[in-house]
Every structure is written in structure tokens, then in C-alpha cells.
């Protein structure tokens, strides 16, 4: 159990994720103008300048010339930029000459030099056209279905494949007791809830891509579709005619997550939602949760918690570590007790995660307090956690004495 509590959610940024792909996968990825331009946007500013210089050159350039592009004061930034380009296989050094990746060059020239637009042309008018407000509501509802399963696995609102993905990523734990399987949120799952919505989406997509090979899907083809989504517009419908079989399957999983809307599986068009368009922005790490609105939790010194919310999901999350007592149309009242905290700790949720959640969703009226959460509450939650850590277990060997007469 101690080892489980020490785990941290591994949410890599886009650069870290791409570095784990092989050179052949990256070369295949750079065949897509969408992917090449998206990776280009994530590069450091100095690396972007180097790419633009190499883009206008027909052949390789001497490494000595490239090293002279920066003076002695800028060598640190220069080495950092060159390292990024080489790790992502955008450039390679052969016989002291710097060569720009041919696939990357071709895709970038198609956009920057020829001036061709990357955005697909919309289809003919759709008699079932959807506006931005509908797509936003649809995406949020689909994503909250996933979070509902994470908090309360008894709600069968996600597919079997998505449930397996949550288990493989460690967001839920499965325990068998009395011939019954119990699925509950893990410590990593609670850390996941503390992330912003965009980082949550990116983490799930990242885990999906990691397990794509096990499902018989090509990770590169899935990435190409993701990069393409980031260049599309919401409220516009686009054709699926040019999609590969892998991308057709991936589109249905994105549909379940709320990243795209498709009225029917057989429909030849889809609408990207704000979650799909902004999926790559979630790869840029942020330290605090972004709830999209003001905080809603009031914490009193007597351990009473007042949450000004009517969201079933937010109420279920609070119920993981708080004993709920009263429920009103726009508010719930509960108390953080020793029993409720111990119940959360048994699920793998740590005291630090509970306090971090309270601080991340505190009501604006409490922001003037220093600290925002009463010290009596913070200290007591940590003390309740320490009650379960009084003993430490170490593996040992028990010798068996055999008397020989």
C-alpha cells in the first residue's frame, strides 16, 4: 500500500510523448502537414528560426556554419534548440552536415511556401447542422460520463473498451472480495480529478495512444487525426472519406469521449468539439486545476463543508472524503470526519490530495483568508493519515529449526 500512495500521475507533454516514438514512426508522422506544423509550433523560438533557415535551403548545410548561428552568449539556447530538433528527428547530422528531415521539409513547404490551406473544405450544408452551444454541451456531457465512471463505477455509462483503458492507466483499482469484483477510484484517479479539463483529456488520449498497438491500431495514424483536429473549426462539419480504417475506429472512440460529434456511425461527416480542437493544448502542463468557473467550497473550522453546487459529479467527488448530511437544490452540506477520511485513504487517496482539492475549489469569499483552508482542518486530516502509518512492514524470513537426534 505504501508504494501505491507514492505514485504520481505521469502526464507527459507533447514533446516528451513524441520522443518515445521511433524514427520510423516520426518519419511517418511528418508525412502529414497537420502533424509537421503542430510539432513546429511546439518548438522553442530559436529552433523555429533554424527550421525556417533550413527550409529554404535545397541541400544539407555544414555543421560548422550552423554552430556559428549563435554567439558565445547564446550557446546554451543554441544547444537546447539543436538537441530538440535532433531528438524529434527533424534534423540529423551526417558527415558534419545538418540535414532537414525530407518528410518534414515536404510538409512544411506545402504550407509555408506554396501557401496551401491546411483546413479541409466544409461539406454541403447539413440538414442536421449543429451549432457551437450544442457541441459544447455535448462534449461536456460525454466527458462527465467518463468522470462519473471514475468516481462511481456502478454507473455503466462508458464502453467496455474505455473501462479497460481506465484500469490499464491505473485510474481505478479492481479488488475481488467474497466472489465479488469491486472497482474504485485509485490515488492516481484522484490526482487525475485535480487536473484541468484540458490536461484530463490529453492524459486519457495519451494513455489511449500507448495502448493502441494492443488494440491493433496504428499509433501514427491516430496521432495524424489528432493533429488534424487541432486545425479544424467548431460548428463546421468535415468529411471522413479520406480517413484510414484505423482513423475510422479511432474516430468512434473520440466520439465517445466527446472530442467529436457524429450523428450516426455510418455518417460520412463529423463535427469537432472544443475538447478535440484544444486537445494538444492540454499537453502544456499547468499546476492548478482549472474548473472554468469560480470555486464553490466553503470550509469551516468545525470541519463542516458547504459546497454551492448542483452538479452530481462534483457532489460525488466531495462524497469520497466527506460525510454528506444535507442536500439542497443548489448546495450540499457535509462534515469531514475521521471515518470519511479513513475511507478515502483506504481507496488510495492521500491527505495531501484532499487538501489540494479543497484549495483548488475554494469559494472566492475564502480567498482573503490566510491560509484559505483552516489550519485545524489541514492538520487534523494529516493526523488522521498518520494514524494509518504507525507501522512499517519489511519483508523477512522465518527460519524453521529442525532438531536432529
Strand order of the largest sheet: 9-10-12-11
Approximately what portion of the residues adopt beta-strand conformation? Answer: 5-15%
Structural class: alpha+beta
- Distance between the amino and carboxyl termini: 45 Å
Mean pLDDT: 86
The main sheet comes to: 4 strands, antiparallel
Helix content: 40-55%
Given the structure, what is the number of helices? 19
Query: Gyration radius, to the nearest Å?
Result: 26 Å
What does this structure look like?
Helix 18 packs antiparallel against helix 19. A hairpin with a 4-residue loop joins strand 9 (297-299) and strand 10. The longest helix has 20 residues, at 132-151. Residues 1-6 and 286-292 have low confidence and may be disordered. The chain has helices spanning 2-5, 14-19, 23-29, 33-42, 45-55, 63-67, 75-87, 102-112, 132-151, 160-168, 187-193, 197-210, 219-229, 245-257, 274-277, 312-318, 338-346, 351-360, 375-387; strands spanning 61-62, 91-94, 97-100, 172-177, 180-185, 238-239, 260-261, 269-272, 297-299, 304-307, 323-328, 331-335. The two termini are 45 Å apart. It has 405 residues and is an alpha+beta fold. Strands 9-10-12-11 form a four-stranded antiparallel beta sheet, with no helix packed on it. Strands 1-3-2 form a three-stranded antiparallel beta sheet.
Summarize this entry quickly.
This protein is α+β, with helices and mostly antiparallel strands and 405 residues long. It has 19 helices and twelve strands.
How are the SSEs ordered, and which strands pair?
Elements: H1 2-5, H2 14-19, H3 23-29, H4 33-42, H5 45-55, E1 61-62, H6 63-67, H7 75-87, E2 91-94, E3 97-100, H8 102-112, H9 132-151, H10 160-168, E4 172-177, E5 180-185, H11 187-193, H12 197-210, H13 219-229, E6 238-239, H14 245-257, E7 260-261, E8 269-272, H15 274-277, E9 297-299, E10 304-307, H16 312-318, E11 323-328, E12 331-335, H17 338-346, H18 351-360, H19 375-387
Amino acid at each position: 500500500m505504501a508504494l501505491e500512495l507514492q505514485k504520481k500521475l505521469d502526464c507527459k507533454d507533447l514533446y516528451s510523448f513524441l520522443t518515445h516514438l521511433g524514427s520510423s514512426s516520426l518519419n511517418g508522422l511528418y508525412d502529414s502537414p497537420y502533424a509537421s506544423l503542430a510539432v513546429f509550433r511546439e518548438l522553442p523560438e530559436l529552433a523555429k528560426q533554424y527550421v525556417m533557415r533550413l527550409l529554404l535551403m535545397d541541400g544539407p548545410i555544414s555543421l560548422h556554419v550552423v554552430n556559428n548561428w549563435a554567439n558565445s552568449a547564446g550557446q546554451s539556447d543554441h544547444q537546447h534548440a539543436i538537441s530538440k530538433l535532433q531528438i524529434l528527428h527533424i534534423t540529423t547530422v551526417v558527415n558534419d552536415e545538418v540535414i532537414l528531415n525530407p518528410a518534414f521539409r515536404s510538409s512544411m513547404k506545402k504550407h509555408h511556401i506554396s501557401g496551401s490551406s491546411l483546413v479541409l473544405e466544409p461539406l454541403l450544408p447539413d440538414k442536421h447542422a449543429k451549432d457551437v452551444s450544442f457541441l459544447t454541451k455535448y462534449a461536456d456531457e460525454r466527458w462527465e460520463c467518463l468522470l462519473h465512471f471514475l468516481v462511481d463505477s456502478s454507473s455503466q455509462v462508458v464502453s467496455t473498451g474505455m473501462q479497460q483503458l481506465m484500469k490499464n492507466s491505473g485510474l481505478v483499482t479492481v479488488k475481488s472480495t467474497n466472489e465479488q469484483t469491486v472497482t474504485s477510484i485509485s490515488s492516481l484517479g484522484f490526482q487525475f480529478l485535480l487536473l484541468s479539463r484540458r490536461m484530463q483529456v490529453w492524459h486519457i488520449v495519451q494513455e489511449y495512444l500507448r495502448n493502441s498497438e494492443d488494440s491493433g491500431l496504428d499509433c501514427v495514424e491516430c496521432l495524424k487525426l489528432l493533429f488534424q483536429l487541432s486545425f479544424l473549426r467548431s460548428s463546421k462539419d468535415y468529411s471522413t472519406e479520406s480517413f484510414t480504417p484505423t482513423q475510422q475506429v479511432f474516430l468512434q472512440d473520440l466520439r465517445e469521449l466527446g472530442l467529436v460529434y457524429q450523428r450516426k456511425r455510418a455518417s460520412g461527416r463529423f463535427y469537432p468539439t472544443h475538447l478535440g480542437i484544444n486537445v494538444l493544448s492540454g499537453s502544456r502542463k499547468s499546476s492548478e486545476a482549472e474548473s472554468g468557473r469560480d470555486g464553490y467550497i466553503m470550509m469551516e473550522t468545525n470541519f463542516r463543508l458547504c459546497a454551492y453546487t448542483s452538479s452530481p459529479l462534483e457532489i460525488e467527488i466531495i462524497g469520497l472524503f466527506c460525510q454528506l448530511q444535507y442536500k439542497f437544490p443548489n448546495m450540499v452540506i457535509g462534515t469531514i470526519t475521521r471515518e470519511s477520511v479513513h475511507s478515502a485513504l483506504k481507496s488510495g487517496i492521500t491527505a495531501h490530495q484532499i487538501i489540494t482539492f479543497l484549495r483548488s475549489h475554494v469559494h472566492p469569499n475564502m480567498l482573503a483568508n490566510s491560509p484559505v483552508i483552516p489550519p485545524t482542518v489541514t492538520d487534523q486530516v494529516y493526523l488522521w493519515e498518520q494514524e494509518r502509518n504507525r507501522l512499517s512492514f519489511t519483508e523477512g524470513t522465518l527460519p524453521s529449526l529442525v532438531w536432529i537426534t
